[in-house]
Amino acid sequence: MRDILSDPIYLYAPLLVTLCSLILAAIVFRWGQKDVSSYLFTALLLSLTLWASLLYGMRSSQDLYTALLWERAIPASTFLTFALFYHFSVAYTRITFSSRQRITLLLSYIFFITVIAFSPTDSIIESMRLEDYGYAPNTGLFAKVIFLVYVLLIFGGAYNFIKRYRSTTSYEERNRLIYLVTGTVCVYLGIFLDAFSNLPPLALWTNLVFALVCSIAISRYHLLDIKIVARTSLVYLITSFIIAIPYLLILLLIHSFLQDFEVWWINILVILIAAATLRPLYTWAQHFVDKLFYRQRYDYLIALENFVQETHDISDLNKLISSIITNIQPVMQSSSIHLLLLSESTGDFLENPLDLPGEQVILLGKHSPIVRWIKDNKCPLYTKQVGIIPKLQYLTSHEIRIVDKEKADIFIPILTRNERILGILILGKKLSGMEYSKEEERLVITAANRIAGIIENAYLFDSEKRLIEKLKKQDEQKTEFLHNVSHELKTPLTSLISSSEILDEKQVESEEIRKRLVTNIRSAAESMDKRVSELLDLVGIQTGILVLKKEPVDIKEFLSNVASQLQSIFRERSQTLKLEIADSLPKINADKSRLEQIVFNLLTNANKFSPISGNVILRVKENEGQVIVEVEDSAPAISKAEIDKIFDAYYRSEDSKKRGRFPGLGLGLSITKHLVELHQGKIWVENKAQKGNIFAFSLLALDPELRESGD
Amino acid sequence: MLPEDKYFQDLTKDEIWQRYCGFLSLTVDEFMQIQQDLLMDQIKRVAVSKLGKIILGNNIPRTVEEFRQTVPLTRYENYEPYLSEQQVDALAFKPSIWCHSSGKGGKFKWFPLSSEFVHKIAKNAIATFILSTARKEGEVNISPGVRVMLILAPPPYGSGVMLQATSQYFTMVKLPDLDKFPNLPFSEKIQLGFQMALKQGVDIIGSLPSILTTMGQEFSNRKRTFSMSMLNPKVLYRLSKAMIRSKRNGRQILPMDLWPAKSVIAGGMDTHIYANSIQHYWGIKPYEFYISSEAFYMAIHGWNKRWLAFLPDMVFFEFIPMDELRKEEENKDYVPKTVLLDEVEEGELYELVISHFYGMPLLRYRIRDIIKIAALKDEDTNVNLPQMLFQRRVDEAINIGGLAQLDEKTIWQSMANIGLEYNEWTAFKEFEQGTGYLRILIELKPTELRKSTDLEKSIDEQLRIIDTDYKDIDYYLGMVPIRITLLSNGTFQRYIEEKIKEGVNPAHIKPVHINPPQTTVQRLLKLSNSKQ
């Protein structure tokens, strides 16, 4: 018997539990949530430490009497541990205590004091005896009552956890509660085995497991999914028993059968062939077990595989969306699924960013709190978090509609490898009403990564397609340009040659005819000079040769001069050029000759395209540090399609081309645009609802001080 | 289960704190971003309504700056015909509730509330419940079923609507439930509330600070009698506990012994005047909020109950600096410029301008309150948002010699500081040989024996301490600009009785503290003399 008492496992096991409990208490106190439940659990662990220390005192006693003294102190510490456990369960699962729980707590602490009071008497521990495993107590009548209260307190705690499990829809919270209930079941096992079996004391170890499991549950931020842990263990066990053992047995049988041959290499060869032949069977069995135990995950993998296969060659985003809906939605059991893609032009996230046929159902603006949060955090956002994270709680009506109407539950960023967000996948709530599990979240993230690759490819495909179209168009334009150039140069040349020939060959008697011929030659030369200048300007801009000579310009005075120079061409067509120039305007920094070219171009265009007796307005105003010059004509309104192309080089309107009324190379507006941009300005055109267009450009105003000083 | 109860069931305490009190962890930039987003959303919503078109004009602002530049500052008169007649067609939404302010001159100001706004009221009411009962950051001491005894005016008064709105979203045990006793007189409702609280216990008590103090005083002075209603185990338990507690502390039983609450909420500018007496009677420092019928919750105390932090989701805030107000005073056509919350300065006074969110009608509306920016952040709680204190109403200040602006709060504080025992008072500016001075008509309690000349001296001394502008006023004026007239005992009570007989609205029978009408002053003086 002395041997048993000096057995190090028997003797030092309580010390190990003491040490572990102390470490766990420190961990929970330091890293657990800073709330009452964590503090109560720390107190519980300290109480467990006390209990294990007393147990060590009892086990290390040299005689039964000393052991009895130690043992009598144990029930009080055990009771305190269980009372604290119940208290912890209430604090963990409730915000405030119900009156029933308050009374239970009060009674349990009163009972604890009673236990302390009765501890020195025989009513709890009468005496000690020696068993095979060491000292064992002979319990009194009151010990039975205490045991019953232990059971009730643990049951009460487990009941609180289960009740909370049933009421919460949070997957994380449920997982945590499963850990806590598992720990509680361990305690039950320990105390029942100790009470009703003659086995060596087990409560010490089960309590340690309880302490460990519960500490993990309340301290760790990300818990291992307990379902996965259990499932994996079970699968390994079953695979070993059902597949691996028969497999090995067959190989052993073959091996024993081959022993008669006594040729070692035949023996090995046959075993290898048998192993190889049976391998597919093993794989099949493994798949079967996987399918059986990982049905959900198996479905996910199949869905993912199908999705990857289906989307391998997708370059059309519409097909991608339909593939997501077909493959992902049924497996995830989502009520809805939407893919919003980044619009390169606006920065918003749209359901249909490339203006593909279909209705624009959902849009999240680039300034949306949801988009901002996803961009900052680059991880999935649950709708539940929208109601919690302060920055997200203040959604606009539009965003609230998206969340409510689509019953959105999770927003998953579509991230490229360099963490650029290309889109947002929105999953509706699960049809079951539960939250998505971590496993499901991982599946969607995997799918989202795959989608990111596809979108990148689709965008590349799309941009290449656009590039080819653009190149084709440029090619066509260049051909047309060559045709125009030859035509535009050939026409004045013909006029020039024929006029000079007449002058040279024939005697021109009439002074009037001679003057007309000379005028023809001059105007042909001027026309050629203009075309060549335009071409040189364009080349200068494109090659970067063109350099501006900027100087402060009084825009009011400058524009008045330009307008007066052009009054004659307006008079010719009986048009009115009206000036609307604000009284006080800041100076601008500009190249006067190029600025003149810009304004000339816009005004001559307005003159050309406005009808006879039409009105043209030259308007200048200041807005937020910019000087804006507008030329409003009374020409037919330019269509939206034309507005998009009007500043392109070599572009000529259909009207110009058809009627041949307005000769030119189609470079005027393109050069104007480039010149404005060289001044760090912007140019645009707006059509008026009824008739007329406004060509406007903006240039940066000089600093107010310069305005004051006039420098 | 009500919508907000669900959060208490599903969320952890930390998440609950984040949901309701998380605004305290916002930075000023984040606060401004939220305000901007909600304002732009608001403009889109109201731009389509008749009233919105009238206020916004033809050009719909595209930025906050444009909004501030193009939309005029408004007053109730701009909305009156549409709101007073409750013209729903002119609004951008279907009102969930209509409420009104106490109004002046018997005329109420009506305001429609959208369902989204009502939800925000409930959410912020829960925030006040949590913060008022918390002793430190992250502490959540309430849950659905919280027992509240809020002594407030019934709906459609704003304060009543606040309680009504909250109970639509969050389970509360109301002591008493006013819906169940619609016709019970106000005093009996209070009595019933205390009886119920004695049986059921109470978590949160809330009312005007003066009412809380008066109730405490009345309770202390009342002779205790035994009644049959006390024959209830819970009541007996509370009575005995209260007796033990009071005996242990060697004093008479106070309300805090019988109704130990987790928090006492008080709304009104006189809260800090009564803070000590509320704490004396109810055992807890009162928790304060800044509310109005137009915007409901605008700012609330942090958990340290020091200053008030603005709420980002109720209304858009603009602030008119005092310099701008002075320019407006000098030239009525001058349009004062506003600053935003990220531009306010510590220690400065501002008139508050609000714009509703959630499609509600008020835009750039001057609620005529002057607030003080007490600090740009509260280092005690690590809240990085500007902190405010309510100062006064715009027109509720008495200008003395063009040097000092004495408001109700300052005068009140000076009387509290000298421990003056009074029943009621009113103050106004009076002229004598071209010199303006402050006249206070005051009805002292019979136990207060100080003479008017002593009081003039004591109040003058206190005003020098409280108001820096007043400090050197005698140097400039060559006199102490305070005159006190003591009214005979019962004068104010007789005045109120007269008004009740005349059928005046109960909300307006008490003389205002600052600048009462001349007829009221004359009447008070006459009533005081007639008694003598």
Structure description:
The complex is a heterodimer of chains A (711) and B (532). Chain A has 23 helices and 15 strands. Chain A has 711 residues and is α+β, with helices and mostly antiparallel strands. In chain A, the strands form four sheets. In chain A, strands 5-4-3-8-7-6 form a six-stranded antiparallel β-sheet, sandwiched between helices. In chain A, strands 10-12-13-15-14 form a five-stranded mixed β-sheet, covered by helices on one side. By secondary structure, chain B is α/β, with parallel strands linked by helices. Chain B is built from 19 helices and 18 strands. Chain B has helices spanning 3-10, 13-21, 28-46, 50-56, 64-70, 76-84, 115-133, 158-169, 186-200, 209-221, 233-248, 255-258, 271-282, 322-330, 408-417, 452-466, 473-477, 491-502, 518-531; strands spanning 97-100, 110-113, 146-150, 172-174, 204-207, 263-267, 287-292, 296-301, 308-310, 315-321, 349-356, 365-375, 387-393, 397-400, 404-407, 422-432, 435-444, 482-487. In chain B, the strands form four sheets. Chain B has an eleven-stranded mixed β-sheet with strand order 4-3-5-6-7-8-9-13-12-11-10, sandwiched between helices. In chain B, strands 16-17-18 form a three-stranded mixed β-sheet. In chain B, helix 7 (115-133) packs across helix 8 (158-169). The longest helix of chain B is centred in the first third of the chain and has 19 residues, at 28-46. The termini of chain B are far apart. The mean pLDDT of chain B is 87. The A-B interface holds A 33-35, 94-96, 167-170, 173, 367, 369, 384, 387-391, 393-394, 396-398 and B 7-16, 18-19, 22-23, 25-26, 30, 33-34, 37-38, 40-41, 45, 116, 138, 140-143, 312-313, 358-359.
